[in-house]
Amino acid sequence: MDTATRLLCLILAALLAAPLAAATPRGDEASARASVLARFDAALRNDVAALDPMLADDLDYCTFRGDCLTKTQYLELVKSGRLKYVSADSTVSKVKLFADNAVATGVATVTAIRDGKQDVIHISWSAVLVWHGARWQMTTWTSTLLDAAK
Amino acid sequence: MKTRCTTLAAALLGISIFMSGACPAKDKVAAADEAGARATNQARFEAAVHGDVATLDKLLADDLDYCHSNGECESKAAYLDSFKAGTMKYRSIEPTVDRIKLVGPVAIILGHAHVNATRNGSELNMDIGYTSVFAWRDGRWQLTSWRSLTLPPAPAK
Question: Is the pTM value of this prediction over 0.90?
C-alpha cells in the first residue's frame, strides 16, 4: 500500500469514527450526580447566579405541594428571599442515562423558610437533566413528601 | 489497487453516512413524537385500570422507578406483582396532560389525575399530580420513571 492509499484510508477511517464519537453521551452518571448535588448547594446558598446555568430554560419545578414553577418563577422566589433554605441533606439513589439525558432519583431532608414559615421536610425526588452547552441542566424537578398519608 | 480502494472508500463512506444520521434507526426515533408519548401515557392508565399485566409489562421499562404518592418507590417487578396479587386495584383513573417535553429519546409528561383505587386494603379516592418519564426503546415508548403526589381536595364551590 503506497503512502497516498494509506492517507486516503486514514481519512476515511476518521470520517467513519467522527459520527461514532458524536453519538457518545458526553455527560456521564458521575457528572449528573454531581450536578444534582451542586444544585442543592447553590440553592442552599441562595446563589441565583450559580443556579441560573444549572437550570434549563424550559424548567418545570414542581414542589411537593403540587405547584409547578417556571425557571424564572423559581429564581425569583429564591432571589426575593421568600424561599430561604437553611439546610439540605440529599442523597442521590439512582441515575439513569438516556443518551444526553439523565433521570436521577433520591431523597432529601430540607429545612427551609418559605413566606416566613420554617419547615423541615423529608422528600423523595426525581430530576430530569439534559446535557446542554457542555453541562447538565435540570429540566424537570418533582418531589413528594415522604411522610404524606398513604 | 485503485479499484479496491475505491470500493473500500465507497463502503466506508456509506457506513459513515449511515452512522451520521441518514439511517432508518434515526427515522424510527423521529417517529417517537409527542402524540406517541401521549398515547402511551393514556394506554398505561387504561391497562392499569383493566389490571392488564401483559400490556403493562410492555409499556413499562425494565428499569422502572414507580414512586407512589406516599413517596414509596417500587421496581417494575414489584409494581406488576401488586396487580397479580390483587393488592393494587384501580377502579378508575381520569387523567389530564398538562405538558409534554421531548428531550432526545426521552418524553416527560406532567399532568393531573383523579384516582379511585384500593392499595393494600386502603381506599384511595384522590387527586394527584404526576410526572411520567418515557424512554424510547425497542421502537416504542416505555415508562421509566413515575412520580405522583396527592393534591389537596379542590375547594367546594
Answer: no
